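I am writing to request your help with a piece of structural work I have in hand. What I wish to show you is a protein chain and, alongside it, a tokenised description of its three-dimensional fold. Could you please explain, in whatever detail you think fit, how the structure tokens follow from the sequence? You will find the record immediately after this paragraph.
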Amino acid sequence: MDKLSNLIKITFVTILFFLIFDFFFGKKILKKAGIIYLEELLRVPNKNYSYSFQQNINTDFAVWGNNYYKLCTDSRGFKFNCKDKEKKNYNIAFIGDSFTEGIGLPYEKTFVGKLKEKKNLDVVNLGVASYSAEIYLQKIKYLISKNIISFNHLIIGIDLTDLEDDWARRETIILKKSINKNLKSKKFNLKKFLAQYFPSTYLILRRVNWYIKIHITENENVEHLDYKKNKASWSYIKNYENLYSKIENQISIMNKLQIFLEQNNIKMSLLIYPHQASIKFDKKNSLYKKIWKNYCINKCFKFIDAYSIFFDEIRNNSKNDLMKKYFINGDAHFNENGNELIYKILYKNLENNHEQ
């Protein structure tokens, strides 16, 4: 009993000592190792459009999941290939969430980066993780109105998760209007707190979590593959809560963006693509696809369907094999193969159009 008690005390003191050491020296140690860009700290508030990437990042050690990857951003906080000079005028701008950002991958391996290189176009990627239509509108209006950049064509990666993200942002706005302005409505973010103050501890915990998820539980309990919990489920679940109100809310925001683009002589195209849950539970002619295909009639320059091709491949592959082929192991996002497939669809849709 005494041995167990002593072991517990030693363990507690060791952990406490490590946490204190991490609090004071963790950032310095990680900086010396080059690991200075934990995912939760890559993005910073932006007073004009909610948030964006930090400016002037140049690292080989951005952290996503269990991997490091090269990440560069320019002085405006746009992800790029680390070598191009900044420009003001572009042929095509992309905006979207983490799928458009190309999370976990260097720029060259994302569908935006591949299109830029193969088509030799001036392309800018404005996408950042967890963006949705509300921020697309804010960011595009700000960048164009302030003459920060210009482009002829905007391609919007309208993600399945945007529906819930826009609704959550709507609810936040309503909440802020209904409470005293002096009250703080922001929720405590444990991940960001650990990344900020105990970075080495957070990095270790994150790696352990990913190891368990990939090698022990084999993705059995991850939210992005849960039938109901994943944010792509609205497209296939019957009687989804407030579905039509959420769709109307998102379309209303997209209409504002479409009108703004039209007034500035900018073409608008929509890009759709599946989540793993779509492949596992949904169908080729999904509600998601129907909504945006119908929306694009008389409004879009192009409706770019990078959704259906994944379902065409199911004829010759199992759903699990398809997910392993195109998505990061243990994660919801496309790997390089998935980005390559999206790029090919983009190229095919744009090959007969000269974006000058």
Remarks:
- Confidence is low (pLDDT under 50) at residues 181-185.
